[in-house]
Amino acid sequence: SQQGEEDPQALSIQEGENATMNCSYKTSINNLQWYRQNSGRGLVHLILIRSNEREKHSGRLRVTLDTSKKSSSLLITASRAADTASYFCATGPGSARQLTFGSGTQLTVLP
Amino acid sequence: DTAVSQTPKYLVTQMGNDKSIKCEQNLGHDTMYWYKQDSKKFLKIMFSYNNKELIINETVPNRFSPKSPDKAHLNLHINSLELGDSAVYFCASSQNGFTDTQYFGPGTRLTVL
Question: A100 and A90 in contact (C-beta within 8 Å)?
Fold first, then answer.
């Protein structure tokens, strides 16, 4: 079964608004990563948060991790049309030696 | 310079054919991967490989095989192509281990007719 699952599957907002995407997972992890995929392109790494971290920032991105709830959230503040993309969480389980990706959230930012 | 490159970008072929997709990374990374992304954008790991170990996802048919001529290259060979093999295939690499940050290639869209 999938390790990481994103919610919602699709999100449409106006430029300037904040976008929040959630990721839930099932087993213990050593890190959780968020990636962005623009249409027709490869995935681009955004941020990595380790299991002993609770929050991390990178520019307009804020990621939180709650290991007790096995969940993470990605917040994009002051969204731009260029943020339109699919966003994936990927978990690095402690017992396995590979990343497992969710099915992604499709974010559309309307100008 | 492109960090992870794949060729070809598009591949259209008939059922039953054998094809290869090439991948090269110039990042000096030790570990490379192949992923398959289906039409619903679900990304599934196929292979993880470094100079010590090959990890094969057990759901991958043995018609698929990775070949690594050197540390910078990991090619994907597919024999006897089937309709269900149509997907986008991504190569990726990472520096430190299988769960480290990964750098993806642009993808190869394979269409089997």
Answer: yes
